[in-house]
Write the structure tokens for this entry.
Amino acid sequence: MNYRKEINDLCKEINDLLDKQDNKGMEKYGMALEQNPAGILERLQHSVEEKIDDLRYTFWAMDRLKSMWVRFPRIKFVDVNSLAEQLDHVRSEHKEVWLAFEDDKIGDLAMELFDLIHSCETALRILQESFGIDLRETLLAVIDKNKKRGYYENAGKTD
């Protein structure tokens, strides 16, 4: 990995963001930050307000990361199906995948695969909500296990 290139790319990105913020400030306030006549306490108050906004964005992102394994909305079957019933549904979706494959219906195959994933997610939600399984930690453990097995082309990335 070429870290120097990554650092250079990061410096360019930071400079681009600085330019963007300068332009935004000029449009909003009609002057550069350095020309602002506000006193130190007023500037520090602005800084505090920016940090509060940053905390809100950070907490929002953390909430999203807690459920990073989710692709589909939560459905009612999480509340009504037992784990065994949901696993039986996973099995039926798996069968539908094979039927679409055997009938050479590629468009249907893609839909059935998504149905299977959705059904598996529902089973995972049941595990999480009824049995207290930490799915984020489980997902990270699976990724780590598969990295060690050499399954990923680029073992340094998880996207």
